[in-house]
Amino acid sequence: MKRAGILNRHLSGALAELGHGDGVLVCDAGMPIPAGPRVVDLAFRAGVPSFAEVLDGLLAELVVEGATAAHEIRGANRAATALLDARFPELDLVPHERLKELSAGARLIVRTGEARPYANVLLRCGVFF
Question: Any catalytic annotation for residue 20?
Answer without folding.
Answer: yes
